[in-house]
# Entry
Amino acid sequence: MHKFLRRNFAGYAFLSPWLIGFFLLAIGPILASLYLSFTKYNVVRPPQWIGLDNYFYMFQMDQRFWKALQVTFQFVVISVPLKLMFALGVAMALDKGIRAIGWYRALFYLPSILGGSIAVAILWRQLFNYDGVINSILRLFGGDGPYWLSDPKYSLWTLIVLAIWQFGSPMLIFLAGLRAIPQELYEAAEIDAAGPVRKFFAITVPLLAPVIFFNLVLQMIEAFKSFSGAFIISGGTGAPLDSLLFFTVYLYNEAFAFLRMGYASALAWVLLLIIALFTAIAFWTSKYWVHYENERG
Amino acid sequence: MSKFNRRQFLHTSAGFAGSVAVMSAFGRPAFAQDAAVRHFWWGNPERDKRTFAVIDIYNGKTPGVVVSGETLGFADYFTKLTTQIAGGNMPDVIQQGYGVLFEYIANGAVVPLDDFVGKSLDISKMDQSAIDAGTVDGKFYALSIGANSHMAVFNTRLFEEAGVKPGETFDPFAYTYDELKEFAAAIKEATGIPGTDDNTADYQNFSDFTVQKGANLYNEDGSYGPTQEIVEEYWSTWAAIRDAGGTPPGPESAALAGVSELSQLGVVTGKSAMSYLWSNQLVGVQGLMQDILGAAVYPNTPEMIPGSVIQPSQFVCLTRDSGNPEAATAYMSAFVNDLDMTAVLGLERGIPSNSEVRAALEPNLSAAEKVSVEFIDRIQGKTAPLTAPPPSGSAEVEQTFERLAVSVLLGERTIPEVATDFLNQAKAILARA
# Structure
């Protein structure tokens, strides 16, 4: 053991910033939140053990919990496929060997870097305000835009558009995947008189399936965790009428607005389980539609 | 984490030495022998400017003590404070409001000042009423830094253009919701800008209205005071003003439900001619706009029962995490007594509770400050008695009110339906808290 330590000391020393961070800032708080989820804890008083009460309350009494789930699912189910389709479309357009492609890639990737920021959420609010840019443009064409942000019919869509706009990172991954598809396959298909649609579904999609799967899982997890846009645009409360009550926004409110840290921890664990469940489902279905090149079968 | 001090850290990973050195170079230049006092408040740009200036004055006057300031908007202030309580690193001196304060006292986050009174802390010139307001169970906890009340502020230019004359067309210190409806619609007619903000989702106005109707927000047993009739009448009253054209359209007001930034008030954005706030906020709002603001009380019912209270707007308190309570209380003392410092603070946090300070401020008041002093003078004796602080759960009831009021503004459900829903939810929240 001693020998082992001495031999590997330098390695662990270099790893230490990450290791310390992982144990103190990730594993520690995660375990603490598991404990807190069985307590009533308002920060100022010490936590008080209440067993499964938080979970019973959540599933049996808490209407806002179900509302938050509904909003979050709606967001995931709509935004993730649209974002992936959009990203794939742009990636295919850029795969055509356009001049100055590096510039386009950087340009399209930019929103992904900016997208999660508070500044962009505030910008989004300005764009979709009743007197904002979007409605001003609509008015030029004689239309009268709705109250995008304060009407619960539209408010979630502004965030879905915001999510799609951040298509940069799946796009880059798609682009790399497209580059890996051998051109000979397309050439052979052309000789057999296959049109673009046929080529897309018979060659691109199956060969890109592992990449699509990877992006799907990543984007799904991201969408479940989405927070800052909804937080800023709804003023922190999920308004209007809880139409932007993302699960994370609800969790934040329970924790920091109403000081129910125990209950909020329970919510966090339920979110973790939901994400794990959906990721597992995605992996389970993947064996029916994702095939890897090096597989025999 | 605390066991892992910087020296061990450097020992294990020398590579970090550089960045640690850089980080400490960015820190405040404090000398080891100096007492450090951290002061944390929620603010607005005007208040932050004044408070930082006051900290500079104090640091200049008292060698050996370094006060540093931290500020956030109201919405984030208590979030940060909460995490600091959990982490055991609250600043020495924090700002508190009437209401939340009592929860902090009950939990021991805020500590009594009695041991310092007459030594580092001088309260000999404070109004007795202000001292009483900061006293719980015979112990003195909170130093009032100003009194205030509910206030409506109006854009004098728009009122004039519409021919609405305070004192002639309506009495700014006693007018009814019906009168408001008429002149608000008249202002819209004349200037194109609606006469008033829509307070359907404004809990402060609702609480005022509840008291006007002879009830209290919370009964003595902690149960919820407003009845179905009161909630319905409140929302119908504002619906009538809205239908008369006196307010911005419902969906526009819905977007502002629960928003507390002064910059979003109708008078500041130019979307209405009258907004509603706490009287101490007048100075901050006037700082955000060109047109001159006038002050009025909240509208009332024909019975004219007072609905507003005069209460301490804010307190400064000493926290249990303070490492140097003598230095911290000395700073608190100067914050309310020192004439150079209070001259800079002015009335931005409310009317000072120290008679000497008030007298010294009198000759140098800005126009907006004069308006707010006159306002508090005029409403003396016309306000409701100070009620017991709200029970825990009250913040959630307030947020629920704001949320459900949106469906009234959007016309999604009828007022009686929403009122029933709200009262049921309020009851459930209070039962759970």
